Automatic annotation (TrEMBL):
<dbReference type="GO" id="GO:0008233">
    <property type="term" value="F:peptidase activity"/>
</dbReference>
<protein>
    <recommendedName>
        <fullName>Isoaspartyl peptidase</fullName>
    </recommendedName>
</protein>
<feature type="binding site">
    <location>
        <begin position="225"/>
        <end position="228"/>
    </location>
    <ligand>
        <name>substrate</name>
    </ligand>
</feature>
<dbReference type="InterPro" id="IPR000246">
    <property type="entry name" value="Peptidase_T2"/>
</dbReference>
<keyword id="KW-0732">Signal</keyword>
<dbReference type="Pfam" id="PF01112">
    <property type="entry name" value="Asparaginase_2"/>
</dbReference>
<keyword id="KW-0068">Autocatalytic cleavage</keyword>
<dbReference type="GO" id="GO:0016811">
    <property type="term" value="F:hydrolase activity, acting on carbon-nitrogen (but not peptide) bonds, in linear amides"/>
</dbReference>
<feature type="site" description="Cleavage; by autolysis">
    <location>
        <begin position="196"/>
        <end position="197"/>
    </location>
</feature>
<keyword id="KW-0378">Hydrolase</keyword>
<keyword id="KW-0645">Protease</keyword>
<dbReference type="GO" id="GO:0006508">
    <property type="term" value="P:proteolysis"/>
</dbReference>
<feature type="signal peptide">
    <location>
        <begin position="1"/>
        <end position="22"/>
    </location>
</feature>
<feature type="binding site">
    <location>
        <begin position="247"/>
        <end position="250"/>
    </location>
    <ligand>
        <name>substrate</name>
    </ligand>
</feature>
<feature type="active site" description="Nucleophile">
    <location>
        <position position="197"/>
    </location>
</feature>
<dbReference type="InterPro" id="IPR029055">
    <property type="entry name" value="Ntn_hydrolases_N"/>
</dbReference>
Amino acid sequence: MRSLLCAGVLCASALLTATAMAAEPLLLIHGGAGVAPGDLDAAGEARARAALQRALLAGHAQLLAGKSAVDAVTAAVTVLEDDPSFNAGRGAVFTHDGRNELDASIMDGRSGQAGAVAGLQTVKNPITLARAVMEKSPHVMMVGQGAEAFAAEQGIEQVDPAWFRTEHRWQQLQRALAEEAQQQAHADLETARYFGTVGAVARDRQGSLAAATSTGGMTNKRYGRVGDSPIIGAGTWADGRCAISGTGWGEFYIRTVAAHSICARMTYLGESPAQAGQAVINDQIPALGGDGGAIILSADGAAAAPFNTPGMYRGWIGADGVPHVAVFAGEQLPLPGQ
Ligand code: ASP
């Protein structure tokens, strides 16, 4: 009947809308590249896997409720920030001076809007503040005390810096400092080992994409160092075609504009997420001396989770509502579209 009542362009647009409404919700997350089999005891590994599952279910619940991809990545990243297993929010790595300085960013692929924060010391969930920068300010990036003043203005939860401290990360800093003292070097390769950034990419029922990333950066960082995670295009990217969140040695992700490069390859070269991920994460970044991984989702629902380290906390959830997670390199994690 309806087809008799509409014609031409109107019918086509009604059909397109119906198709877009029918997109299958998808969510991919990571909890950082760089984890190696010897790094975790059985209890630590079980805690991390359980947290990944909780994050997937929290984000997927948003998508099932008809909420946006932005809501889904915010929910998933918030769970991971609150879990001390990961280098984001509580459990973040320490700076050279023994502080936790947090960075995060988020991008809405539908609107092209983005928000980012860096050098936070009191904001409990940096991703919430990055989202507020995107939605409640005319800016894209805020840092340090200014960003914290904006958090206070927006009523975003702030905590005593001790909230972020874990003994595990403190010991990592002590080891890094001892190694540094021995080597008399300002930045040694050991420092780069402690990854654990978190991120999420999602597609909602409308077919829109979003990406989010949150991190404590790298152990023993100093001089106000900021990595790729809060840099739009480097650690995070989303548009109408692709959503990417990276994790790894941030300086290399900035220099290769990694997240945007992956999306550009998919858009202009017609590469799949797996092909574009291979080119940037497994070829380009290691050729420069960097390492890490990424999660990649395309608007048509194909996904990839490349990495060039011994492991990467990762997982996804789709139509069956079952969270699939993996940690180490040898584990199979069949992804949508692969
Ligand atoms: N990319 C982060 C940074 O360089 C670190 C990580 O992914 O673990 O700050």
